[in-house]
Amino acid sequence: MIESISAALGLMSSFEVMIAIFIGSFAGIVFGAIPGLTYSMALALMLPFTFTMQPVTGISLLLATYIGGMTGGSISAILIGIPGTPSAAATVADGYALTKKGEASVALGTAVVVSTVGGLVSLVIMVLLVDFISTFAIRFGPAEIFMLVLFGFSTICGLSERSLFRGLVAGVLGLMLMTIGIDDIEGVQRFTFGNVQMLQGVNLLVAMIGLFAVPHILEVFNSRLNKEDKVNFDIGEIKTKLPGFNFLKKYFNLMLRCTGLGVSIGAIPGSGGPIAAFLAYSNAKNSEKDPVEKEKFGKGNLAGIVAPETANNAVTGGAMVPLLSLGIPGDPATAIILGGLLIHGLVPGPMLFIENAPQVYAIYMAIFVAYIVVFILQVNFIKHIVKILAVKPHHLACGILVMVVVGAYAIRSSFLDVNVMIIMGLLGYFFNRIKLPVTPIVLGLVLGRTLESEYRTAMSLSDGSPIIFFSSVVSVLFFLLIVLTIFLQVRKRMIEIKRNKLMKKEA
Fold it and tell me: Are 307 and 345 in contact (CB under 8 A)?
């Protein structure tokens, strides 16, 4: 072991490796921060450059891009209310609310710190518990994954501020949108209306860009027409403000819970950052005991940034476990990393840790260094990033419009995606007007495909018997959590209704 670690240090001491980590981290942050230009796209662009590199150098470049992209998604989510990545969707509510209060740098600094903490702690957990986590993840079959995703969907009511019914309607709408295209199992067309281009279905990121970006642009132009377009922030007063020790002490338990949640979710193939982020956000909101702080969720509560950003970055450590030990990628990003490993002759599996131990330890070190580099880059760029607030809103909206159109087209080189983005944007604008929450729609979009595919796979394995969903301890546990979550949310709303009635009577 000592010899392997020593050899890994020798591999990591190369100047080329450090340059690769720096370039990958920077590219990941940029692509993650720009809506539409995801870190998956950045990884796909970086992969050809690794062909001529040494194995550790090439893999370090890909890992740094992955980590930079995961953390960079929060930048646009906080500054302009548009998530750069699906994993940052849960950060929008409180992050953008803080920006509108003039606390953009506080929100960004918080996201940077907790992202780094979540990522580094997940790395430690991955190294120490790799065998246990691998065993835990491999036990998840279709029934268990379905229950896990259904548990995530059960939190949908908690994401609706005003009405349980509206939250449910929005969530079901998100699920329906994900059924458009070709059925993955039977290969039949669904809701394509004879249009060949509709066979590719609704892309998750395209829909998210439309739901978050277009309504924002329309609102800005509407304000412009009403002569309300003005800069609401004094840029001179905005400074880089990283949270200190007291902050870490206050949110230590929350970060610890969300890190564990992120690692567990990341270790399960087919899940990923968005699921972990939404579950963490729901956990933070439901576990808050202070009524005043609980009421601040969605209105600028730092816990609404701490929870999802810690969890989605902790996913990186968990996702590497099935990737390295089983060769199972959890999402498109890790699939590209898997391709990079295979290109350089590093075949994932039990033998990888025996035959290529120095390279494995070098991968661990590369992840650690990448998080440090990403942290340094973001800390030094925050003071420049917040200057975006000095731009006139309508000017910024024009720039965002160009970026989202280019980004939507670049995802699959399809003009249909641009049209879908516009349609989703108009729907999002209409939903905002009628007070229908958008976040449950996003959750439905994120969970829809996995929910359907795992359900149908499980039913096929059991010859149509629903008993399979209660045939394991894990499935039963998730079912009980679903029932408990729904009960608590309904109970909470009933208490709020009674309280409002009493207040009206007293008035």
Answer: no
* Parts of the chain with a pLDDT under 50: 231-233, 235-236
* Tokens 């720009």, located at residue: 34
Question: In angstroms, rounded to a whole number, what is the distance separating the alpha carbons of residues 178 and 185?
Answer: 14
What's the pLDDT score for residue 279? 85
β-bridge mates for residue 504, sequence order: none
pTM of this prediction?
A: 0.68
Contact 297, 283 (CB under 8 A): no
**pLDDT, tens digit (0-9, with 9 covering 90-100), for 421-461:** 899 889 888 988 887 777 778 777 777 877 888 899 999 99
Contacts of 238 (CB under 8 A, 6+ apart): 102, 104, 105, 386, 389
Contact 360, 12 (CB under 8 A): no
CA distances from residue 417 to 137, 291, 443 in whole angstroms, order as listed: 34, 42, 20
Give the span between the Cα atoms of 278 and 254, in whole angstroms.
14
Q: Could you tell me which residues are beta bridge partners of residue 190?
A: 181
**pLDDT one-digit tens code per residue, 39-86:** 777 787 788 788 888 888 999 999 999 999 888 888 888 887 888 777
List residues bridging with 182 in a β-sheet: 189
Q: What is the pLDDT of residue 236?
A: 47
SS3 label, residue 189: strand
HEC per residue, 63-123: HHHHHHHHHHHHHHHHHCCCCCCHHHHHHHHHHHHHHHCCCHHHHHHHHHHHHHHHHHHHH
> Residue written as tokens 């072991």?
1
Distance CA 59, CA 340 (A): 7
Q: What is the pLDDT of residue 170?
A: 83
| Rounded Cα distance, 240 and 285, in Å | 27
Question: Which are the contacts of 136, defined by CB distance < 8 A and separation ≥ 6?
Answer: 264, 267
Separation between Cα atoms, residue 6 and residue 53, nearest integer Å: 21
pLDDT of residue 172: 86
Which single residue is written with the structure tokens 């894990």?
474
The whole-angstrom separation of Cα 233 and Cα 254 is 31
Q: What percent of the chain has pLDDT over 90?
A: 11
CB contact at 8 A, 60 and 411: no
